[in-house]
Design a protein that fits this description.
Number of helices: 15
CATH superfamily of the largest domain: MetI-like
CATH architecture of the largest domain: Orthogonal Bundle
CATH class of the largest domain: Mainly Alpha
Strand content: under 5%
Oligomer: single chain
Order of helices and strands: HHHHHHHHHHHHHHH
Number of strands: 0
Keywords: Cell membrane, Membrane, Transmembrane, Transmembrane helix, Transport
Distance between the termini: 33 Å
Family: Belongs to the binding-protein-dependent transport system permease family.
Domain ABC transmembrane type-1: 75-262
Number of domains: 2
Shape: globular
Main location: membrane
CATH topology of the largest domain: MetI-like fold
Protein name: Aldouronate transport system permease protein
């Protein structure tokens, strides 16, 4: 027998949908306006006439950005950072989470090592000791200064080891009976079964490395080595990119403004994450509850 919702229930659901729709629009509106500004003329953007749709449509801002050597160089640094950093993080997470997911009967000092990593979440050395460590190890002004300090995200390690612990123990026991060792069990059983969790942590890693800007400002002595987000921070807050407008021809210059250029660069900076997320979303919905269910 089908139960019909009461009028109060229907009103409640309708009210929730309206509120959620308004909140979604409030979140999307700045992005939509930024894209509209980037495709508008400089005069329209400067006068504040652009809201949701571009006015006096033009792609000159994107043409300039693609010709800007400093911007393209920072994009390459960010791509290099994401590839190296995410690969190293995923490797370290798997290699650390697998042994820590074993029982004390198998890994005798498991508890000691778990607290060895957990202590880094509770206490931090701070910015100055970290800076001195990077400087004394010779990593300053290199891509490794952006990669190595974040190579072991302990919170993600904890999530992954809990995910591993929730896998049926009978699978690994059967593999050992058939003669498989720990390496083969890890790569043939644990990793294939942990695809949702690994995809979720990979998404966290990609977004974290791509959006990080502060360490680029601190550890890079030259703006030529800035990652994209650090470069965008300097042109938005310090306005270091305005002088570059003088190198353009008059036709392009007439359609540009500081606001359209910033909007175009921010839009291009957010584009890679927007393109990657849909491919990982189906795994993200499963992996978001990493380690939350214990059977």
């Amino acid at each position: 027998m089908v139960e019909h919702a009461s009028w109060s229930r229907k009103w409640f659901l309708s009210f929730n949908y309206i509120v959620l729709a308004l909140m979604a629009f409030a979140c999307l509106f700045p992005i939509i306006q930024m894209v509209a500004v980037s495709f508008s003329s400089g005069t329209a953007a400067s006068s504040g006439r652009v809201t949701v749709f571009p006015i006096e449509f033009t792609t000159d801002a994107y043409r300039y950005v693609m010709r800007n050597e400093a911007f393209m160089r920072s994009v390459w640094v960010s791509v290099e950072r994401v590839v190296l950093g995410s690969s190293l993080q995923m490797l370290m997470m798997v290699l650390i989470a697998y042994p820590l997911s074993k029982d004390v009967s198998i890994f005798r000092f498991r508890t000691v090592y778990v607290w060895f990593f957990m202590i880094t979440i509770l206490f931090s050395g701070g910015l100055i000791p970290t800076y001195l460590t990077i400087k004394m190890t010779g990593l300053m002004n290199s891509i490794w200064a952006l990669v190595i300090p974040n190579a072991v995200p302990v919170f993600s390690v904890v999530l992954l080891l809990n995910f591993f612990r929730n896998l049926p123990k009978e699978l690994s026991e059967a593999a050992f009976i058939d003669g498989a060792g720990h390496w083969k069990t890890l790569w043939k059983i644990y990793i294939p079964l942990s695809t949702p969790g690994l995809a979720t942590l990979l998404l966290f890693s990609l977004v974290g490395h791509w959006n990080s800007w502060f360490d680029g400002i601190i550890y890079m002595n030259s703006p030529d080595n800035y990652p994209l987000q650090s470069y965008l921070q300097t042109i938005i807050l310090l306005k270091q990119d305005s002088a570059a407008l003088s190198v353009l021809d008059a036709n392009i210059l007439s359609n540009l403004s500081d606001r359209t250029l910033k909007s175009a660069q921010i839009g291009l900076g957010a584009l890679p994450i927007l393109l990657v997320y849909p491919f990982l979303q189906r795994y993200f919905m499963k992996g978001i509850v990493l380690g939350s269910v214990k059977e």
